[in-house]
Amino acid sequence: MIPEIAIIDPNTLSCMGLESLLEEIIPQAVIRVFHSFEQLTDDTPDMYVHYFVAAQIYFEHTTFFLERKYRTIVLANGNSQPSLSGIITLDIFQDEQKLAKNILYLHQMGHQHGHGHPHPPTLPHPHKENGHDLTPREVEVLMLVTSGLLNKEIAERLNISLTTVISHRKNITEKLGIKSVAGLTIYAVMQGYLTL
User: Fold this and answer.
1) Across the chain, which distance is largest between two alpha carbons, in Å?
2) Where in the sequence is the domain holding 137, given as residue range(s)?
3) Beta strand pairing status for 88-91 and 50-54?
4) Does residue 81 share a domain with residue 27?
5) Of 4, 5, 133, 143, whose Cβ has the fewest other Cβ atoms within 10 Å?
6) Tens digit of pLDDT for each residue in 110-148?
7) Contact 175/124 with Cβ under 8 angstroms?
8) pTM above 0.85, yes or no
9) pLDDT digits over 6-20, tens only?
10) CA separation for the pair 62, 166 (Å, rounded)
11) Is 186 domain-assigned?
């Protein structure tokens, strides 16, 4: 069964960014975007394993989402959001890496609570299909990239040249077929290099 995820948010840019992240984190999912609650209800609203919903829409239609509370994730705007008792919130003002980790964590928690797709999220591993593995140094660079360090900081930390760091990053990207830091973070979590 292919998991279906709904994003309900009037902000087009937020929807595009979240949709892109979700496609990297849960590549087997079908993601549908709705810019209003009415668009969602015109569809088949009960078929989704997760609802990523803008706080404003959540508050306007609380009854609907409370009935689906274990599948609802409210998109919160930093710390200014009122507390939502028992409802999962996702701070959309986090940096890309933290946001990716938190989405992956929420998806995995959904499996542990018996809802959502029965199989854990997987990422394609083109490096294994091609017989390539990351070298120990590339794994070190990967870990430092996912911890948010800049190339110059990685070079200083590993006592190597900036050119060597750039070369390692290029090799990692080519081997894995993953270009974004969020994607690399997800890969590192899935491989056990990084914990949530």
Assistant:
1) 58
2) 126-177
3) unpaired
4) yes
5) 133
6) 655 544 433 333 333 333 433 348 899 999 999 899 888
7) no
8) no
9) 999 999 998 998 898
10) 48
11) no
